[in-house]
Design brief:
This protein has about 70 residues and is α+β, with helices and mostly antiparallel strands. The longest helix has 9 residues. The protein has a domain of about 40 residues. The relative contact order is 0.18. The chain has a 3-stranded antiparallel beta sheet. It contains 2 helices and 3 strands; from the N terminus they run E-E-H-E-H. The chain is about 25% helix and about 10% strand.
């Protein structure tokens, strides 16, 4: 996955994607247009409720605006 550091082909700064293709991503990184980012993706599915901190995060109350 890459994150754009400069505007490129209509994509804004900060855009993250894996869809450009490995060759394009490598060229963008070499030219300083993007940087590689670690997504922390592993082979197992992330249910987001397996960690105590995440389960608390999911149940917190949010103030509603009307």
């Amino acid at each position: 996955m890459i994150e754009l550091l400069k505007v490129w082909q209509g994509f804004p700064i900060g855009h993250r994607s894996e869809a450009f293709g490995k060759g394009v991503e490598e060229i963008l990184i070499q030219r300083g247009i993007a940087r590689a980012i670690d997504t922390g993706v592993s082979d197992r599915a992330d249910s987001r409720a397996d960690h105590p901190k995440r389960s608390k995060e999911a149940t917190r109350d949010r103030k509603q605006r009307h």
